[in-house]
Write a structure and sequence with these properties.
Blueprint: H1 8-14, H2 19-24, H3 32-39, H4 45-51, H5 56-70, E1 89-91, H6 95-116, E2 122-124, H7 132-138, E3 149-153, H8 161-166, H9 185-190, E4 200-212, H10 213-216, H11 225-228, E5 237-240, H12 249-270, E6 271-275, H13 277-283, E7 294-298, H14 299-303, E8 310-313, E9 319-328, H15 337-344, H16 346-354, E10 372-373, H17 377-382, H18 385-403
Helix pairs in contact: 1-3, 5-6, 12-18
Length: 411
């Protein structure tokens, strides 16, 4: 794993694909070896970043993703697969954790192969979204077509009513594997653990308020979702998302649950732009005129912004959370028990904490200073959240275009 104390020479030689990241951040060298000669063999990553005043967490995030996407020579974890073949594991976690998780899965698979003499079929999704062919195939009522273990996140199709009726409600999955594990009190208080033990939550992305004091001016920080909809915050909000597909469903679902479609319309009035979390971190506190006073963004990306005049606030009514969870086939639990144990175990929970992503495991030092809001399992099971999210987006875009004529929503 790349850390601040890793020599730049080692990074560039072991992971040559990272040179483009250095180039795009102002390290203007013709090639990697020239860069190594000029900065020195032993120079640490944290040293060159400090000299150039580059945010270290955000830079390592870019490095890790460059490495993850470029890796093509894994021996145990599949680089590609046929979705019509049975998979033992299919995973898609958040970007800051993918590199850590894939490394750990490699070790688990080597140990499994050496201990049993059999190789499992495991695939870690490199992109943000899952394979469309898999989505279509795994929605099929035949449970044998579904992976033994699916690692997923956000309010996606696997939490939708169609999938629940076809698969989850049939009793195919189990989350009865925590044993005597201490659960994070924040999770218990919010009701994040599935009472029906079908979905195994292992962590959440928690949305915070990244506030640019200069751009917000004398207006007070909106500490509740109701205040976010107040007219005084007109054009003061940036949402997470690069396009309609990636625009976060979570914000719309939480607002709709409390305030209905009128709340979605009021939100549209107050949103200036939508952008990826890394863009928000670069905008907040900068002189860029496209910025705004408030970014609704995950705690991880908020922490990567360290400019003066920028503050992180935790909403008084709880941070909106996006679930990170596993679906484990009841008939295949023992075959993937080691992977499940790692996902809910102390080591991965500690990685979540370091990525400013609250884990369900309560044994680690969870330093989350706020409270968590949760959409609610009863609500998810009694409402078609996928359809609601799309309806909310329709209303949002219509109202945003009406009130921002000629404007550009996505940066």
């Amino acid at each position: 794993m790349i850390t601040g104390t890793t020599p730049v020479s080692r990074i560039l030689r072991e992971y040559p694909e990272t040179f483009s990241i250095f180039l795009s951040n102002g390290f203007e060298y013709p090639d990697a070896e020239t860069m190594i000669r000029e900065i020195g063999e032993e120079t640490l990553l944290q040293t060159v970043l400090q000299i150039r005043e580059i945010n270290p967490e955000l830079f390592r995030f870019y490095l890790d993703n460059a490495v993850l996407k470029a890796e093509q020579e894994r021996n145990c974890v599949l680089e590609d697969f046929n979705p019509w073949d049975h998979l033992d594991f299919y995973g898609n976690t958040i970007c800051p954790l993918k590199f850590t998780f894939k490394d750990a899965l490699e070790v688990l698979e080597r140990n499994h192969a050496s201990g049993t003499g059999q190789k499992r079929k495991c695939y870690v999704e490199a992109g943000k979204n899952s394979n469309d062919s898999c989505d279509e195939l795994w929605s099929n009522p035949d449970p044998e077509m579904f992976p033994s273990l699916l690692l997923s996140k956000e309010f996606n199709q696997y939490l939708g009513q169609d999938f629940q009726k076809r698969m989850a409600e049939k009793g195919y999955f189990t989350a009865d594997f925590y044993g005597d594990l201490k659960i994070n009190p924040h999770f218990e208080q919010a009701g994040l653990m599935d009472p029906q033990k079908q979905y195994g939550v292992y962590g959440v992305m928690a949305d915070v308020l990244l506030v640019d004091r200069k751009k917000l001016g004398d207006i007070p920080v909106p500490m509740t979702r109701a205040k976010l909809l107040d007219p005084e915050y007109k054009d003061q909000i940036i949402l997470f998302g690069k396009d309609r597909t990636e625009l976060s469903n979570a914000t719309f679902l939480y607002i709709y649950k409390e305030f209905g479609m009128e709340g979605i319309r009021r939100l549209a009035h107050n949103v200036r732009h939508a952008a990826h979390g890394s863009q928000m971190a670069r905008l907040a506190g900068s002189a860029n005129p496209e910025g705004a006073g408030i970014c609704l963004v995950s705690w991880f990306f908020a922490r990567t912004c360290v400019r003066p005049g920028v503050e992180i606030h935790f909403p008084a009514d709880g941070c909106m959370t996006l679930p990170m969870y596993v679906l484990v086939r009841k008939d295949r639990l023992e075959q993937v028990r080691d992977i499940v144990d790692y996902i809910i175990g102390d080591a991965f929970a500690d990685a979540c904490v370091k990525a400013f992503t609250p884990p369900a495991n309560g044994n680690v030092d969870d330093t989350f200073p706020g409270t968590l809001a949760w959409l609610g399992w009863d609500y998810i099971r009694s409402h078609d959240i996928n359809a609601i999210a799309e309806q909310c987006k329709d209303v949002f875009f219509e109202e945003w275009n009406r009130t921002h004529e000629g404007g550009q929503l996505f940066l």
